[in-house]
UniProtKB/TrEMBL annotation:
Keywords: Thiamine pyrophosphate, Transferase. This is Acetolactate synthase large subunit. The lineage of its organism: Bacteria, Pseudomonadati, Pseudomonadota, Alphaproteobacteria, Rhodobacterales. PANTHER family: ACETOLACTATE SYNTHASE LARGE SUBUNIT ILVX-RELATED, THIAMINE PYROPHOSPHATE ENZYMES. CDD domains: TPP_BFDC, TPP_PYR_POX_like. Belongs to the TPP enzyme family. It comes from Pseudosulfitobacter koreensis.
Length: 520
């Protein structure tokens, strides 16, 4: 350890984070964090990205982890600031993302006074964190920071919350702690390997993948297993990161709609899980099962999230005798015909398939509109596809910020509904400020369209005008072009396929963020 008596706690924290590989801080600071802000100012090595709302900061950290495969930090102001960021921390936790939250706290003497912003910060943090700690003194904060970064990298990735009281930050006696080793993933269930290999035989068996199983290399291995055994391949409905496109093994998804999911999974009598959970419904529905698989299906978990997924797939491939088998389901380069006329869900899918840039990153929160996107885009240029894994909307735009900062050499295409985008619309300002290469498609159907369908799914027949009004965004209508331009983002509106094609060309050629309002 480096003993620097004149260093304050905030300075030791910044030095330790940087030495531990944390290079980006998504910030929304307040008074209690000013010594940390000052340390970030005069210590080189940390990129500071200002967000106008904490949900933008936490969502950006999620997107950064998914693409960089290392944690960023956030800087949040006391309990209410953390509370504002919890929704996207929920999504990050479900994605298996590693995030280091630095949360300011009052000085110990001030907590006793029960000032207006006093809150149980540890209590607020715990439901969305794997690891929570309050640094008690300037002398310990460096060690706490190193352990926080290490905890964030526990496979598949963890949410950690380090709480920094303001006196801990300003007091001298800070100690810079050296980096700690990245923890190894837990071993997979090797005792189940032979049973898993036997289970995968024929079209009534399924290899269901998620998480780290969806890299290009691991999908290639899964394709070999499918070709050798005749099993089918599927992924979970929402995936933190999936490599797709021409020349890569294509994998379909368990559908979101409950009836479609039940029908899709009905044929499978033996299911092997690698990086995935046994499929369940997003919600409960009257008279319908929550477990989506056949009640008599045998389900075997070979490698849950947090275990060595790479080793599990390689071992399963060898146990199946598939090592030298050419992979099945390799997607051929194929694009749909150029659509014309009014924008429909099918023509929109075709437009997106044709527009995906080589090595692009697709950030997808098109919960209703995007259900037709997946099959049509399988033969597009090679790309990475990221979903909202936690279901809490307002993820897409912040996560696009993090992905663009993690991969400045790659185009980002963000797909979101108007209702979802309004949750974190402040993201547009950060995109403009940082000059990020993001093309945003906002699908403007002027409603929470998914909830209109859910009214029917939960058994509500003939909803009245007040129910429909609570799901509508048309009184007044949102003008996304004006909103984007007010925050420094160039924007166009598209009402036809021809409009959309031209706007996509402009957006993807544009240096910086560009928003397209797609009228549906």
């Amino acid at each position: 350890m480096t003993d620097t008596p004149q260093m304050n706690g905030a300075e030791s924290l910044v030095h330790t984070l940087i030495d531990s590989g944390v290079e980006v801080c998504f910030t929304n600071p307040g008074t209690s964090e000013m010594h940390f802000v000052a340390a970030l100012d005069h210590i080189a090595g940390m990129r500071c990205v200002l967000a106008l709302q904490e949900g933008v900061a936490t969502g950006a950290a999620d997107g950064y982890w998914r693409m960089a495969r290392k944690p960023a930090s956030t800087l949040l102001h006391l309990g209410p600031g953390l509370a504002n960021g919890l929704s996207n921390l929920h999504n990050a936790k479900k994605a298996g993302s590693g995030v280091v939250n630095i949360i300011g706290e009052h000085a110990a003497s001030h907590i006793e006074l029960d000032a207006p912003l006093t809150a149980d910060i540890e209590g607020i943090a715990r439901p969305m964190s794997h690891w929570v700690r309050t640094s008690p003194s300037a002398e310990t904060v460096g060690k706490d920071a190193a352990e926080a970064v290490q905890a964030a990298q526990v496979a598949p990735g963890q949410i950690v919350s380090l709480i920094l009281p303001s006196d801990t930050a300003w007091n001298t006696g800070g100690v810079v702690h050296p980096p700690l080793p990245v923890p190894s993933a837990q071993p997979f269930a090797e005792d189940m390997l032979d049973a898993a290999a036997r289970a995968l035989s024929g079209p009534d068996s399924l290899l269901l993948l998620g998480g780290g199983a969806l890299t290009e290399a691991n999908l290639q291995i899964a394709g070999r297993i499918a070709a050798k055994t005749g099993c089918k391949l599927l992924s979970e409905w929402s995936n933190a990161r999936l490599e797709r496109g021409a020349g890569r093994v294509f994998i379909g998804k368990v559908p979101y709609p409950i009836d479609m999911a039940l029908e899709t999974l009905k044929p499978y009598k033996r299911i092997v899980l690698i990086g995935a959970r046994a499929p369940i419904g997003f919600f409960a529905y009257p008279g319908k099962p929550a477990v989506l698989t056949d009640p008599d299906a045998d389900i075997l978990t070979l490698a849950p999230a947090g275990t060595n997924i790479d080793a599990a797939l390689s071992a399963l491939c060898e146990a199946s005798g598939a090592t030298d088998t050419p992979p099945a389901h390799v997607a051929e380069a194929a694009l749909p015909d150029r659509p014309e006329g009014p924008i429909t869900l099918d023509s929109l899918a075709a437009q997106i398939a044709r527009a995906i840039p080589e090595n692009g990153i697709v950030m997808d929160e098109s919960v209703t509109t995007g259900r037709a996107f997946f099959p049509v885009t399988k033969g597009a240029a090679q790309h990475t596809w990221l979903n909202n894994t936690g279901g809490s909307i307002g993820y897409c735009l912040p996560a696009a910020i993090g992905a663009a900062i993690a991969c400045p050499d790659r185009k980002v295409l963000a797909l979101t509904g108007d209702g979802s985008a309004m949750y974190t619309v402040q993201s547009l300002w950060t995109m403009a400020r940082e000059k990020l290469d993001i093309t945003i498609l906002v699908f403007a159907n002027h409603s929470y369209q998914i909830l209109r369908g859910e009214l029917t799914n939960v058994g509500v027949g003939n909803p009245g005008p007040r129910a429909i009004d609570m799901l509508s965004l048309d009184r007044p209508a949102l003008d996304w072009v004006q909103m984007a331009r007010s925050m420094g983002v160039d924007a166009q509106s598209a009402t036809s396929c021809e409009d959309l094609e031209a706007a996509l060309q402009d957006g993807l050629a544009h240096d910086g963020p560009f928003l397209i309002e797609v009228a549906l």
